Amino acid sequence: xxxxxxxxxxxxxKAWGYRLDQYDLLFSNRGAVLGATYxxxxxxxxxxxxxxxxxxxVGILLLINIRIKGWSLPAVxxxxxxxxxxxxxxxxxxxxxxxxxxxxxxxxxxxFIDRHITATRDAYGLSGVTARGFxxxxxxxxxxxxxxxxxxxxxxxxxxxxxxxxYVQLQELRTYYQVDDVDTDRYVIDGKLTQVMLSxxxxxxxxxxxxxxxxxxxxxxxxxxxxxxxxxxxxxxEGQPQFLVGDIPLNVTAEELTLTQERIYFGEVAAEGSFVxxxxxxxxxxxxxxxANDLTFNSYDGTGGVQVGGLxxxxxxxxxxxxxxxxxxxxxxxxxxxxxxxxxxxxxxKVAPFLxxxxxxxxxxxxxxxxxxxxxxxxxxxxxxxxxxxxxxLAATAHPSTLPNNFNYVRNSVKAVIDPFNGDMSLxxxxxxxxxxxxxxxxxxxxxxxxxxxxxxxKQHFRYPEDLFRVQSDMYGRYHVTAPSxxxxxxxxxxxxxxxxxxVTRPSLRGAASPPPMLPYYLLMRLPEDENPTFLIMQPFTPxxxxxMVSFLIAKSEPExxxxxxxxxxxxxxxxAGPNQVAARxxxxxxxSDITTQLDQQGSDVxxxxxxxxxxxxxxxYMQPLYTIAExxxxxxxxxxxxxMVFNDRVIIRDTLSQAVEATFGFVAAGPDPGPTxxxxxxxxxxxxxxxxxxxxxxxxxxxALREGDLALYQQLIGEAQIxxxxxxxxxxxx
Length: 735
Known about the structure:
Layout: H1 2-24, H2 38-68, H3 72-101, H4 105-123, E1 130-134, H5 142-147, H6 149-153, H7 160-171, E2 177-179, E3 183-189, E4 192-203, H8 214-220, E5 224-225, E6 227-231, E7 245-246, E8 251-252, E9 263-264, E10 275-278, E11 284-288, E12 295-298, E13 306-307, H9 311-321, H10 325-328, E14 337-340, H11 344-351, E15 356-357, E16 362-366, E17 369-380, E18 409-418, E19 425-429, H12 435-443, E20 448-450, H13 456-459, H14 466-479, H15 484-489, E21 494-495, E22 521-525, E23 534-543, E24 551-556, E25 565-570, H16 579-588, H17 590-600, E26 604-608, E27 612-616, E28 619-630, E29 639-647, E30 650-654, H18 657-665, H19 688-707, H20 711-734
Parallel strand pairs: 1-25, 19-20
Antiparallel strand pairs: 2-4, 3-4, 4-6, 5-9, 7-8, 10-14, 11-12, 13-14, 15-17, 16-17, 17-18, 18-19, 21-23, 22-23, 23-24, 24-25, 26-28, 27-28, 28-29, 29-30
């Protein structure tokens, strides 16, 4: 009796399991794509429905056996269940897949492939991508450049990785400060929208051993100080960043970046579990005197942390941190405050552990105050028919991404704003359509605020999050295709080209032996058909197995168009060169090769920076900065030495961006132009033959200057020769 009852319960529970298994078919990987495909819907689903009734019948037979008390009914029930499991639930779907689907797979699976494509595009926010044509025209003149002067003036000469090394050497200033990351943003500087590189100067997570003791670690060295900022395209005479904000005390040359509160108690680098106690009898190291020869001190007057209070609280802190000095130290007063969980990502993890975080928090300066902005994500692993995310490029981040490895749905649902002085956190919902964040907001109504409550000044510094865009662009390489037949044949897959900036002769700052894929990058530019400039993130694509470029995908960051994505596609018959084709052209150019060889022989390593693909009007321009760094020197500072610009088949290398633009297009850029400017060579005169003869002489003199090691004269003569050639070509075209 008892055995019959137990087996009947098992059978009825299994019936419910078969019922639930029907929903798992939405994540089946049996067919051509992930999700319920032909065999799942037309064979496996009916089989599971039948198995529900088989299990129920088995359960009933076992319950009847309570009265009959024999082995006949259990044997019949077991045989029925086994036969149905083998013949109906296993063998039948297998036969359908083999003999009905595989011989004509596309026609049978087309409907389900279409569902898979639609679901995947929806799950990753790609269904709203607008596809536009892009001519990649070879015709781009000085008037076009003038009309896009803001784009040209904001071309990023400083790679974040290279610039970080310069910031570390020039602006950390003391061993207890750390510049951890360089972020890209935009500010209005002197009335002009400008792309700016900015870093926080934080307190290092661990002091130098010679300075480390309990008082220094927890009472004296408590905070970082200010920011370091420079224009993305400005360079000093020495080839170093031209600082808008730098030094201690802060030297601010851009009024818009003036800080009224300069201290950073909460940031990116604080170690997990570390704490400081502020407002004690021991003054905190704060800044340097104007001559930088002495220290200034400060006592925290903010509201962050927890007040120490009396002996019981002090004992509790001692237990919390495993540190008896919190009780024994006579420097701590009841009004002192304990600042703990000082890492901003750790803080967010504690208040919203159900949301993933972007790996790159960024600091903004708004109305004299600093604020951290952290993008947060809703994710799920249970979005029907959607493909699992490709997260391969998330590893190439300064900080680990908290996005899970197996998600198949993601939304940038929340932007968190954190005060680096007090640690106050505000979580704003930026995607009201996300059902996951709506559910959490109903559970925790006091945790989230509407995006309407966010100050407009903060919104002006929105960035489309890079981690999300990496995942989206990786998925878009396959899911830009919406036709099931093309998707099934895999005849139109795109990929992301290898990063040409990694393939350098001496990769002291670039690093990898096997070049990783290119990462997306931020640009401040005016898109075709747009009247106003846009701060956007961009990713070029090449066809799978082919070197030419096929498309570039952008996502806008401006508040009024935030999240708008556009896929600019090139004509199939005449696509522009891909990034590695252009890099190969640069490396094989004799002038570039001669110059880099000379630089390399002067005790320096030559670093090829990020190759940027820049859309201007309906044309594509490529730009790559070249840096040098002293060889075998620990504290060497990278310096910008040359700018390479490529348009059509022309490769131009110059000392500055404005010189490169002028040599390429005949337009003098209005942006910053560091260093002494060579005299403009006189215009040639005479026939085209005369101009070409003068150009030949100039080229010969340039080669002689190069052999003598006079790079400045070599560069000037090459510029004269190229201008003469351009004039000759112009005469021939107009003649």
